[in-house]
Amino acid sequence: MEKSRAQRILWLLEELKVDYELKTYKRVNMLAPPEFKKIHPLGKSPLLSIQAEGAAEPLVLAESGVITEYLVDHFGPSLAPKRWQEGKENQVQGETEEWLRYRYFMHYAEGTLMPYLVTALLFKALKAKSPFFIRPIANVIAGNVDTLYLNPNLANNFTFLESQVKSAPNGGGYLCGSKLTGADILMSFPLSAAKGRSGFTEESYPALWAYVGRLEEMEGYKRAVQKIIDVEGSYDPSL
Predict the structure, then answer these.
(1) Range list of β-strands (E), 122-201
(2) Which three-class secondary structure state does DSSP give residue 202?
(3) pLDDT digit string (tens) for 75-120?
(4) Cβ atoms < 10 Å from Cβ of 86
(5) Element containing residue 228 per DSSP (H, E)
(6) What is the largest CA-CA distance in the chain?
């Protein structure tokens, strides 16, 4: 769906080099159109439909994290780190640091970071679209939310991510180590959307900024963006 977070699923499909068909839908009053809800009742994007040979009905997956985990499990195990330390297979605390980071960031992207960014978007819209006679009140409310809630929490998260990039194992480069994983792909959208806003600047978070730049320069990322441009005419990663 246009103006959604689906680009990273396209990027994942490009990295996996699997054949796929891209279908796009236009929003109606910023919401999913009726035909989109026929695929999934919540009308959320992205959705992935998989038709396996011999299956009577396609499998429809929603939620970016679920889609990413399913695709990596079945088509791209190299995009997930090794799970177990040598000699500690299936033991409690036997997981590698790389795998624990991978599992954590698969949930962190939508569970922690995105809610703050979406809230920032909503209050930005509140200030811009309130009727003029109540706009001063809306600006005060939104400003207090920014000052007391959003700004400190976003700064805390960006500081945390800066440290995670710097401390990534095996020489780093990515959040989970020296190789791209599905978690990096999932994290790409919120971080690209936050660049230059919400306090996320190169001066304040140089390692995190450079990391996002590396993701945006990857060939699979650029192919996914180009496919969106070919369909929609432009690509804007902002929320």
Answers:
(1) none
(2) coil
(3) 999 999 999 999 999 999 999 999 999 999 999 999 999 999 999 9
(4) 8
(5) helix 219-232
(6) 68
